[in-house]
Each structure stands twice: as structure tokens, then as C-alpha cells.
Design brief:
Blueprint (H helix, E strand, L loop, with lengths): L4 E3 L2 E4 L4 E4 L7 H5 L16 E3 L3 E2 L6 E2 L4 E2 L3 E2 L6 E5 L2 E5 L4 E3 L1
Antiparallel strand pairs: 1-2, 2-3, 4-7, 4-11, 5-6, 8-9, 9-10
């Protein structure tokens, strides 16, 4: 934006009060370069099929995702829970460390 300005080691946007480091490029291309790996250290990609390696309780629900459940057509996203998928028609965000490539 036009109103952003450097302040020490950060850029500051006075419109939304967002601050970010000057050495950052300012876009999310860094997250695209990150390789997401499963529990066996195999790289994952969009559209892969994976299998759950342990039972996972769904927070805020009595549902449990069972070990051995196969999940098809995953989608990789940025963040702590890097795998977006659908299991039995419901959407879930999962950590890659609980998955293995099928």
C-alpha cells in the first residue's frame, strides 16, 4: 500500500497496524517453496492419497478419525495444520506428521 513505511527493522501499515520484517519479501512465495513431508519423510503434493497412522480425536466433537483411514485428494495449505482434506464428507485440517503417503 502507499501508506506503509519502514520503522527500524520492520515495515508498518498505519491503515491496518500490520508490521512485518524488512528482510521479508512481503508475499507468500516463501511458503510455496516449503516442502511438506509425511511421517516417513516422503514429500507430499496436492492430490496425493494418504493414510492416518494413529487415531485422532476431533476437537470440539465426539468424532474420532480412525487409524488406517485412507484420505484421497489432499490439498496442501500454509499454517500449522498443513493438509486440507475431506473424510466422510466432512472437511478436516490435519498435520502431516500423522499421515503417511499411500
Amino acid at each position: 500500500m502507499d501508506n506503509t513505511y519502514p520503522d527500524g527493522e520492520h515495515y508498518i501499515c498505519p491503515d491496518c497496524a500490520l508490521e512485518w520484517p524488512i528482510d521479508s519479501s512481503g508475499n507468500d512465495e516463501e511458503s510455496d517453496d516449503r516442502v511438506i513431508k509425511d511421517s516417513n519423510n516422503n514429500p507430499l503434493a496436492d492430490g496425493d492419497a494418504v493414510i492416518l497412522i494413529k487415531d485422532l480425536k476431533v476437537k470440539g466433537s465426539s468424532t474420532t478419525l480412525k487409524k488406517g483411514t485412507k484420505v484421497k485428494s489432499i490439498r496442501l495449505v500454509a499454517g500449522d495444520h498443513e493438509v486440507d482434506c475431506k473424510i466422510d464428507g466432512a472437511s478436516f485440517m490435519l498435520k502431516a506428521c500423522f499421515l503417511k503417503k499411500a
